[in-house]
Design a protein that fits this description.
Length: 346
């Protein structure tokens, strides 16, 4: 298994790359939404990331001894009408296809995404982790009231501030699955050609409906329906183990790991621990939640998973660099466990 780190746009810097390398990271998952606003470059937000931009990012990572392994999340301006089945859908799909071809050209092998309308909605920062460390959590008591999504917004992001008044209305479970299947049917052949795996994140928080829009993977067993839509190596799961652990389904988190790793359908893993389940849970340190993380890593290894594991979140620690310290703690813990597993199997 390979140890990676997820970096948001403001962290895609030489300094952070050095930190990651020092912490034992070998692969980077770049979160690019926000990056496409390209201050000072004269490029419009709706313009797809260019080959030159991605190549520049890749060079910076490679210079620090890191691999550019994945992009996580499409820019909202690049695919809002794909989600909404709007008039620019075909034009935006063409842009997504061009992106996959550019990624394939550069050897960036995974495109993570979340086909949803409300994205991560209603979570808040709580101090319930060990030592009162701040970390994300969700509860119905703390979440804001649900309401239909305004026109000009998806994914909690305004893409058109001049959109007409009103809302996008209700998006049923049937509608989102239909739109998603059409998206996959059109995009997976291009992913296969480019050798870029499309990796779908589960619903976070795992509620069946948020703001009158349906959600797809809200229970671990739902991934099977999703994966069966297009039986291809290049259609896979962005397996967020923390979100899976938050779900209340027929499968538990360990069965889900065994099932989808055994099918070879996990592109990469978000490794975090949680306490509780929907509708009341919070994230904690990697060694402090409800999930036996050593057992989980043993299951990935047992079923031959050799992809990338990233600690997608970690509680912030009480020091001058709270994010860095939290990440370093999680990365060190993962490295230690994997080294022990490798020794045990030698």
């Amino acid at each position: 298994m390979k140890i990676g780190i997820g970096l948001y746009p403001q962290l895609l810097t030489p300094e952070t790359y050095r930190f990651a390398c020092q912490a034992g990271v070998t692969h980077v998952v770049a979160h690019l939404p926000g990056f496409a606003r390209r201050e000072g470059r004269g490029l419009a937000p709706e313009q797809m990331w260019t080959l030159d931009e991605l190549a520049e990012l890749k060079r910076g990572m490679n210079d620090a001894g890191l691999e550019f392994a994945a992009i996580e999340n499409f820019e909202v301006e690049h695919w809002y009408d794909v989600l909404l089945d709007g008039p620019l859908r075909d034009e935006q799909m063409a842009g997504l296809k061009a992106l996959l071809r550019n990624m394939g050209h550069l050897g960036i092998g995974i495109m993570g995404y979340n086909f949803s309308y409300a994205n991560v909605w209603g979570t808040t920062t709580v101090t319930r982790a060990r030592g009162d460390a701040p970390a994300p959590g969700y509860s119905t008591d703390l979440a804001p009231p649900q309401a239909e999504i305004p026109n000009g917004m998806v994914w909690n992001t305004v893409y058109d501030k001049d959109a007409p008044e009103g809302t996008i209305g209700t998006v049923s479970e049937e509608q989102i699955w239909e739109r998603y299947e059409r998206f996959l049917t059109e995009l997976v052949p291009v992913a296969e050609e480019a050798e870029v795996r499309l990796a779908m994140h589960p619903a976070d928080p795992p509620l069946a409906v948020i703001n009158d829009t349906g959600r797809m993977v809200t229970k671990p067993e739902h991934y099977q329906r999703l994966l069966d839509l297009v039986p291809s190596h290049y259609h896979a799961a962005e397996f967020c183990q923390g979100t899976i652990a938050e779900m209340d389904g027929e499968m538990d988190v360990y069965e889900a790991i065994e099932t989808y790793t055994g099918q070879g359908r996990i592109a990469y893993v978000h490794l975090r621990n949680v306490v509780g389940k929907v509708p009341d849970y919070y994230e904690t340190f990697i060694d402090g939640g409800d999930v036996d993380m050593v057992k989980a890593l043993k299951l990935y290894k047992k079923h031959g998973f050799d992809g990338i594991i990233i600690p997608d979140h970690s509680p912030a620690m009480a020091c001058e660099a709270p994010w860095h310290a939290g990440m370093a703690y999680a990365l060190g813990w993962i490295r230690g466990v994997l080294a022990t597993l490798d020794q045990d199997s030698a």
